[in-house]
Every structure is written in C-alpha cells, then in structure tokens.
Protein 1
Amino acid sequence: MSVGSAPPQTPVMTETLALRADAHVVVRDGITALVEGHVQAPLGPLGPALAGVVSALADGTQESQLVALTIEAEGEGAAFKLQRLLRRLEHGGWLKRTLSSGKRALATRHPIGHVIPPQLPPADVTGTLVLSRVALLRADGGMVRIESPLHTVFVELHDPALAGLVARLAQPTDAEELADSAPGLDTKTIRALLRMLRDSAIIATAGEPEPPGLAQWSFSDLLFHARSRAGRNLGGFGGTYHREKLAEPLPAIKPPGEITLPLPTPDLAAVSASDPSFGAVLEKRRSIRAHNDERPITAAQLGELLYRAARVRGVMHDGHQELSSRPYPGGGACYELELYPLVNLCEGVAPGLYHYDPGGHGLERVAEPGPPTILLSEYSRITAVMDSPPQVSLLITARFGRVMWKYESMAYALILKQVGVMYQTLYLMGTAMELAPCALGGGNSDAFCAAAGCDYYEETTVGEFIIGSPGGISGDASGAGRG
C-alpha cells in the first residue's frame, strides 16, 4: 500500500427477503393469497402498503426498503403491520433470505415446509461453534446446499468456497478463526452467516448436549423420517404423478419370463372352509424359526401360500397407469412388490432362485444353486438364528418405478409400509396353513442383484420372509420365536 492511500473498505453486508420460488400470489375478490402446490395462505384484504410489500417480495428486496415503502404509503403506524405480516410469512414458510457482502451473494435460506418453528432470540454466535452431526452438504442443480433434518429449511451456498468454511466447523471453532481463512469476509459478515446456519439447525454451540429424544436417532433414520413426512419433505408430496411426462409407467404385472414350474391352483372354497377362524389365526400366529427337513414344505403348499397371499386377481386402468387387485392391500393399487422364492428344500421344486409370476401362478427359474444363492441363504439363516438353511426364503423386492412414477417424497416410505402388509399377510396365511412363517429384519440387496441380475436402482430386495414345515410345537423351545 502506498503512503497516504486509504485502506480498502469492507463491503456492506445486506439481507434480502423474497417469496419462495414456488409461491404464487393470487388475488380474488379483493383477497390476497399465497399458493404453493396444495397449500394456500389467505392474507386477507391488504391495504395499498402491504399489497405493495407482497409485490416487492415477489421480486426480492431488503427489509429496510420494505419499511420505507410502507411508511411512504400509509405513514409511521404501518410499520407495525409490516412486521406482523413478515412474521406471519416467515412462520408460514413463505420467505427466503439471502445474505450478501456488497454485490457478492453468500447464502440463501430456503423454506421447504410450511410450519416453521417460532423464531428464537438472536442466536449467540460469539462463542465456539460446531457442525451438527446430522447436517448434510450436497450438490443440487449446480449449487452447494447444506441442510439438516432438524429444521424445515435449507441453506444454499452461492460461493463454493464457503463449503470449505462450513467444513472447518467439523471441529469446534469461532467466528474470528473462520474470518482468518475467508478472504474478503470480515468477522461481522461471518457471524451473520453463522447466525443463518445456527437458525437453520445446521450448527450448534460446541459441547452443548443433545436432548435425549434426539440423541437416540441415527443420521440416516432421522433424514429418512423427516424427508418422507409432509412438512419437511423436499418437492411435492403424495400422488403427484411427477414423472408422468418424463417416462412411461411400468406395467401392473412384471413381464413374465418362461414359467419353469406351473404351480397347482388351490380350491379357495375348499381351503377356506377348512381354515381356522380369523381370531384363532391371530392368536396362534408366531415366528417359527425351526423347519422339519425330514418332511419339508411341498410345491402344493408353497403354491397355495403364494396364490392366496400374492396372486393378481385383476388388472384395471385409472387413466394414468395400469393398476391391479391382489389379496393384500396396496397403496394406490400400484403393487410394486415381487416375491422371489429361494428354495433350499421343497418337495417338488428343485433348489434355486425363482420368481413368482402372480399373473400366471407359476415359478420362473432365475438362478441355479451356486455361490450367490448360497450367500443369500446364509443371510436368511443367520438373520433367523437357525442351525440349518431355511427351506424357502421369500425374497421381497420392489419395482421402485411403480411407486416413484406417481408418488413424491413418500415413495420409499410407502414401499416399506407395504412390506409390513405383505409380512402380515404371509404370517396369517402361513399360520392358517399350519406352516412355519417368520419375517426377517434385514437382508443384502446387493447380493440379491448379483444373483438375480437386477439393477439395484430399478428392482431389489426390501424385505425377507422364510417359510417351511414346522419343526416344533408353536410356543416351545424347539423353534417358535417370541414374535
């Protein structure tokens, strides 16, 4: 710097308010309302000042400019109305905030839900801070964004260099230390950015203990729970048919291959007449983890179970896609679940991996016995805590596109709920037939894809269920579980 030259001036920090990008302003019969998807927020009849504020927010403006606009239109007393409107919009999830240093946009806080927690007093960011263990930094649309399932907002980082600054918060640090590594940003601006991150539940005070309720959640479980429930979901929610213009829907029934083994069709009237009562089945149901390999399950029994639990009873069309009817309830009648019997021991069925064709009621051979099927069988045996491999493992897959083509945000959660429905249906039918049913708590989806030749992202396992002939009396120590 030459003698007598003025020191460089620090850019002025500003904060711009704007309506969220997916919001629309609608005025009908003098009533102004904000609309986003299926959510509407009537603001009532607005005077000239507040109507001008809403219009200005559609384009984005600074709060000081909104104050000036309001006072100019209605006088000093209108400032209170402005603050009340801004609080309402903020708590309703309608406002985004952009922090800038001079002409350099740094970060924008975007709402993703419409129930924003009440704003707490200004966060204290003068001490030592640390990144939340459930914070997530990722790329989206060419931008870097950081979010937390603890809140209904996310923060978009306009300057990729700020990602490195956020990463430094993996270790406890403070604003002064961060300012030393952020060229062009003074401590005041750093604190404003930290306050935005703190108000978005992305950072916390170092050493502050988590509430007991939060401490029990893993990152993946909490993220899945938050993003698959309305309010903290990303994008639309429910049956939006969001891929209708992007791809053709999958058919209601997976196109069958060659049926290796036609299964006998049970006489429903006869077998239903001999079934125990529904109440008796519910009371008798147990998870039985011991099979009688001297008298294994038969092809007729396996066929009856599959027919009564999972066959296609009919196909229809709702104007968007093919739907089907099956014995168990399915969300939106999409019926994305498929059953792959992995046979170790079944009278009348050779060992191997099969696919059950619910339309033709037969088994299609998918894989011969070998290392991939042995690995899958071992997963079933170990998960069930059995001494020998299960007679039959029913590997439950999902054709994800059947659900994800229609449903948004909640699609995978819906699939897992339907796995539970399938479990209960197999339990009840297996119990009524005096077989040994047992749902398993997990499995290896990659191992299934290796054995069946499926694409992991198009169809793979989401549940496992074993079935066989009972090896002990229900409730005794020879194989009946407590479940």
Protein 2
Amino acid sequence: MPSILRNTAVTLIAVIALYWLTGFYGTALRDPRVLDGWVLCGGMCAQLLFHIRKKLPASPLGKAASWLKVHVYAGYFVIAAFLFHTSFSLPESLFEWTLWTLFVVVVVSGLVGLYLSASIPAKLQEQGYEQITFEQIPAARQKLSREINALVLESVTQTGSPEISEFYVHRLRNFFRKPQNMRAHLRGSRRPLDRICNELDDLERYADAKGGKLLSSIKTLVVAKYDLDHQYAFQGLLQSWSFVHVPATYCLVVLSILHVAIVYAYSSGVQ
C-alpha cells in the first residue's frame, strides 16, 4: 500500500506540474499545446520502452515488475497530458479523429490488460491450479494425449474388450487433441466434464477389475485435461489483450510523429 500511495502521489505531482507549466506557457503568449504536445509525444514514445524490455527477459536493465509499474503510472500521466493537449474536447478533422480513436483504444486495452493481469493469475492460484505458463500448455496437452493413448492400447491388449477404445474414438480423441469447451471454462462451468465422467462411470459399472482400473486412470487424465483447458482459456484471455494494445500503441506513436511533422511544416509556412 505505501508504494501505491507513493507512486500515485508522484504521478499527481507530475500532472499538476504539467498543468501549471502549460498555464505559464500560455501566459507567455505561447501556444500551450506545443508544450503538452511534446510531453505527450515523448511520453508515448517512452511507453514503448516497456514493450522492448519485455522482449529482453535476461536484460540487466532492472526487473520487469519495476518496469511495469513505471509503465502503468506513466500511462496515467500520458492520459492527463492527452486531455490537456486536446482541451478536453473532441477532435475535428479525420486525422485527429484517427489519433483520438487510437489513443482511446490503447488506453482501454491497457486498462483491461491491467485488470486481467491482476485478476486471472490470482484466480487460478485460488482455485488450486498448478502454475504453468501459456507456452508450456501445448507440451502438457501432448503428454496427456500420449498417456491416454497408452491406456486405450492397454485396454485392448489386457481386456480384449473394444468398449474403452470405442468410447475413446467417439468421445475422447478430439477432447485430448485440442482445447475444448472454452466458453464453459470462461463461465466457470464444469458441466462438460461432468458429462464425460458420468459416461465413464456407466462404463465402469459393467467392466471387470482390469477394465475398471483402466477407466479410473482414464478419468484422472480427463480431469487433468479439463483443468489444463481451463488454464488455457484464462491464460489465452490474458494474452489476447496485448494483440490489440501493442499494435495500436505502435500505430499511435507513428501517427503522432507524423502529426508533429505536419504541425511544424504548416507553422513554418511549408505548403
């Protein structure tokens, strides 16, 4: 909590200082939009440093968590600079509307990403899931697929009954091949899992001792696969916001530099 208060206080002081400087700049018979415009452009360019830092996990430039804090609070400052620069009004030209829309997309996607980054890992931890990165999930899924294939093959050789292998072909092969039931996972529903487990229980009632043991092992793998898909759904959601935020940020910076060039071209009399 002290760090949050400290960072918030520093950000507020910076915003107040910018507001005072733009006012002072205006009283000096200069256009304050020049000052807050340069501050805004510089702030947005500086925000790109965090995305560059994320691509350098072994960088000696400090911890990624510290960079994230700076990125977030600097983002709040940039929002204030944007409001000062636009005088809290809507744009007029098409180019200004494009800049304004891109800025709103960057801000909204950033806030959504901040919320997801704070809530999803904590939620998964509360639910007792084993910590696994998004990049490790495909390998874990393949491992479960190999294990289920081995159990099905064992059922054919040991029991001589085709029931387990037929159930696998019709109900479990696609289930283990790729992520399933994404909507159910995001809703927190386990009904798809319950249906499969109920069907496995029905098979187990008529199986012999060997078949029952195999079906019990298969059910364990089914639950593990469902839990893995649950993590995939939420971690995928956590990853998805950046596919909007990062490209929009780069586009915004490029157009902002173009905006600066156009403003100075016209102010210098270039037609």
Protein 3
Amino acid sequence: MLKNSAAILAVVSLVLSILIGVALSRRGAAPAARSGPGVREPVIGLSMDTLKEARWQRDRDYFLERAQELGARVRVQSANSDDTRQIQDVKALLASKVDALVIVPHNGAAMAAGVREAKLAGVPVIAYDRLITDCDLDLYLSFDNVRVGELQARYLVEHLPGGRGRIVRIYGAPTDHNAVLFKQGQDIVLEPLISRGDITVVHEDWAVDWDSSNAKKIMNAALTKGAAFDAVLASNDGTAGGAIQALKEANLAGKVAVTGQDAEAVACQRIVNGTQAMTIYKPIRRLATRAAELAFDMALGRPVVANGVVSNGMEAVPAVLLDVVVVDKDNMRETVIADGYYTRDDIYGAAGKE
C-alpha cells in the first residue's frame, strides 16, 4: 500500500511540476528587456516537412504573423517530404544561430538526429503537430490526436445503420507518428465492435506520405476485392479525396460514408455536396499562434507551461495539446465559417450550393 501511495505521489508531483511551468530552455536566464538600443531580437527557425498542402501554408503564415507581432524574426525551411533534406535544413538553421527551433518532421524517428544536433548547439526544440521520437525533446505541441481518431471512428459507427457494417480503413503515412495515434484512437472505438462482429474491416492499408494517389490505390484495391462495404474510415482529407475519386469512378461516391480530417476547403465542399461525410476541424490559427508564442518564450530562456505529457519512446515529453471539432453538413456554418477559417462563398459558393 505504501509503495502504491509513493508511486501515485511521484506521478502527481511530476504532473504538477509540468503544469506549474517547466523551464524548457536550458540556455540561462531571459534578457531583462526585448526592446531598445542594442537589444537583439530573438530568431526562430521553422523547419517544415512540406508546403505542398494548403494546410501547411496556413500554419506557416499564422506562425509568421504572430512571431512578427511579438518581435521575433523567423527563418523558414521546407524539405518537400525528404528526410535527408530536412536534416540539412535543421543544420543550416542551427548554423545561422537561431535561438529556438520549431520542427514539423516528415519522419518523427529520423528527425531525432536533428534534435540531437540542436542539443549540441544548446537550442531548444518544439515538435510541431508531429511527435519526434527517441530523443531529448523539449516540447510537443499538437492537437489531441488520439481523440481525433476516436471522433472519426465514433462518427462513422453512429452513422451506420444500427451501428453495424463493413468498412475500409485508410491509415496515414507510416512514417508519421500522428498516423499511429489516429489509428490508436480509432481502435479504441472499433476493436470492441470488431470483436462482437458488429464491424467488419474488409480492407486496410497505410497511405505513404499521406498521398491522395496512394489512398486511391488502396481504395481501388478494396473495390477490386469485390466485397461490399458501407463506409471508408480515411484518416485525413487528402486520403479521403483519393478514396472518393476511386468511388466516383465506381459510381459509388455519395453512397458510401467517408471520413476525413484537417477541414480542407475541398473537403468541406465535398461535405456540402454529399460525397464526404465529415472532417475534423483543427483550429490551425490557434495552434500556430501558440507555437510562435512558446518558441518566442523559449528563445528568451523563459519557462513555459504544458498541459500534459506524451511519451516519445525515450522520455515523457511536456506537451501542449489543443482540442478539435467534428464538422459535417449540419454545423459547417457554426464552425469553420463562424471562426473565419473560410467564408461562406469559399464552401457553398465553390461547391455550387449557394
């Protein structure tokens, strides 16, 4: 009993120490002021996996906007989903003497080498929206990605007749730890139903690099099997788009429920047109703005406050996790449009539903 009490106290102490505020930067005391003659503005490095998708362009723009408001300079690099190039980008940013580093990793395991380089240079690192594994990471900032998967799966099950049916599962990139977390959340909902025989998975696979063309191939493989199915559990809007293209070619678009994530404009248009059932809205402005604020504080050697911890395989990493929102045709106006993420015309006008 005493041992259990001691263990509980140890865990509580750890959590409290994180919530009170963890001095994530190990670079010494913060400057007394950040304005006036001779005071150097902090420099933040932003290493991005890719800028090919509209979602990541938004992240970059919101991050830059907030960092500039705070008085920081930002150096941005994009690796075009190339691990070797992204490590080179990180080294280049460190060589340019950045004060803090924010990384959106293409491969969370491969980028551990970049974090080690940053540690040698004494630069604190934030993993942005994707966890970097097996390294001494300072902070992880993301949405609650297990909850994302739970919400996707729960929505799908609730919209199947009687909560029963046959489904296809399209996972994300196997190199992205978030894809594993989405699947983990989906499994929390689905595994009991699969065990009871209420849900049958007729086909499943991972979409390399979250590529819509790879998702289309997975959907085509499911269609080739010839087994009937009622829904497609796609892990993001890009993979949903690939699946829906295959369904269109098979004259099944709109007849099979398809999930998504990221609230991309084209996905929201598909939702109001009836070919996609739902998406997950992640308030990207809030995430990118918070990342800029945290990076700014860490660049100045200030402590920051986390609201959780996430294991990255090596240690319990302090984490700031934001919540997400399910979006479908019934609440489109009250969510992404009310927040100013899109205008009514961006969705309904472009979808021909005005």
Protein 4
Amino acid sequence: MGLFILRRLGVMLLTALCLTFIVFFLTNLYPNLEKLAKTQGNFRMTDEAVASWLDDRGYIDNTFVKYGRWLGVVPGWVTEKDDGIVTGQCFAENAPVEERATFCGVLQGDWGFSLVFKDEVSNIVATRLAATGKLMGFVLLVMVPMSLIVGVLAGMREGSGLDRSLSTFSIATTATPEYVSGVIFIAIFASSAFGLKWFKGSATQAIENATFENFTLPVLTIALYGMGYIARMTRASMTEVMTAQYIRTARLKGVSFGNIVLKHALRNALIAPFTVIMLQIPWLLNGVVIVETLFNYKGFGWLLVQAAGNNDIELLLAVSVVSVVVVLITQLISDIGYVFLNPRIRIS
C-alpha cells in the first residue's frame, strides 16, 4: 500500500506540473498580457509603450523562465531604470539590498497580488474557498444520503413500480440544469409570484451567517442536480449485486430480505458509488459557478468568473492551481478507498 501511494503521489506531482504549466502558458499569451498592460496603464498606450511596460516587469521573458519564477525556483526579475530606481518581483521599489529576496513564488508562499481586488491572492482565494467549502459541505450532507437511499431502494427490487418511479425522478433531476431548477425555485419559493416567499434571505448573507432562509435554495439546487447521477450509479450497482450467486444462496438458506440487503448486498453495492461520490467534490468546487452567480453567492466559482472576466492573471493562476490540487487529492482518496472497499483489488 505504501508503494502504491508513493507511485500515485509521483504521478500527481507530474500531472500538477503539466496542468499548471498549460494554464500558465495560456494565461500568459501576448493578447492577455497586452490587455493587462493597457488595463494597468492606459488604453491608449502605443505598442512600444506596451512592450516597454511588459519588459520592465519580466512578461517578455521565456515562458519556462516565467513559469520557474512563478513556482519560485528561478530568481525573480529585477529592473533598474535610467534614473536609478530599482524595482523587482520579490521586493519593494528601492528596497535596501539586504531586504531584497531572490525567490518569491508559490513554493515560498507568495501567490502574487490581485490587480482587480487589490489584495494578496492567497487571502482572496482562502476567503472564497472557505465560503464554497461551507456550501459544498451542506450539499454533500443532503446529496449523498438522499442519493444512496434512492439508489438502494430502486435497486432492491428491479423492475418494480418503486424502481421505475425513483429512476424517473433520478433521470429528471440529472437532466435539469442548475440554472433551470434554480430559477424555478426562486420563482416559486423566493418571490411573490406564487405567494409563498418561504425563503426571504439572500445567499450573499449566507457567507457570514448561513440560515435556513438564505442557504436552502442554493444547497437544494446543487444537491438535486448531483443526486440523480449518484442514485443511478447506486441503483445499477445494487441491481448487479442482488442478482449475484451468494445473494441467491442466502435467500435459499432462509435469510430475511432485510439482512440480505444490509449485511451482504449493501457494502459491495457501495464500492462503485464511493468513487462517484469522491469525484463529485471537484465538480462541486468548480461546477457551482452557475449557482453562485445565480444566487450571488461570492464563493470560489464566483471568484473564477471574476478572475477570468477581468484578466486577473495571478488570481486566475491561483484558482487553477487549487482546482488541480483538489481534483488530484480526491482521486487519490478515491483510489485508496476503493482498495480498502474491494478485497479483490487489495489481494491482487
């Protein structure tokens, strides 16, 4: 198991480097850099002025060199102007020589400065990630138990009326996009159109103080969309297990149906859904963009939209790195959990 984990960690590190380099390359294409220069300087800047602005800040250098600076394994850029003013990536303007750091990248904990939010990127990402983490936690608490219950009940008696009803419900929830169900929920439960107005709070307030009124609709919108997929996978796995030979043997021995389901079928049936549930976490992290925008919940997905829309390169890179890391970690946990749940893989 230890060797398996070490191999997986090595693959994760290589994958993270490759993916972050691709994102870094795409975000540092010249049109993006030109837009950045004009945004921070003047939209009427000439091409020569744009090139000078970018050259002074190291944006014109080789992509691999810039990527190394961003990681913190290559010394940061230093520019000395004709008037004697010295600026650098890792120190303030005209800072004393003894206070000038050489390396300042991700490995040193320096994620850069957001030119849009005027704050350290690490502070912004941590705040928005915590907000989305809270939303994800409540979604998982609702989505996972309900989807497992629906899937198990449907798979216990394949072809029955209960199975057809629950399967239809699962397909309907998965086929309905969040922006459709979200708008329907708002129109029915949060507006005066139908006279209900059960949920009067704003999801923006839920960032600081989550209540039943301001947090139910966004949680329910995301949970319903993801619940159908997990329920369908659980139903398919449960159906396969219930037709296995050892289940038939248990029935012939007179074991009650409840004991067959709980003691024999359920654990084996949850192996495949476990992997699916773990893969829902990266989807929740980045797939909540629509819901967070719809309900004005300023979390990680909302931050991704702002960073991309405003060409905030440093912030966009940080958001991308966090997304890559979350995906890789959840896949590692999924692989390890699958090994523990499936004895056949563990023995092999």
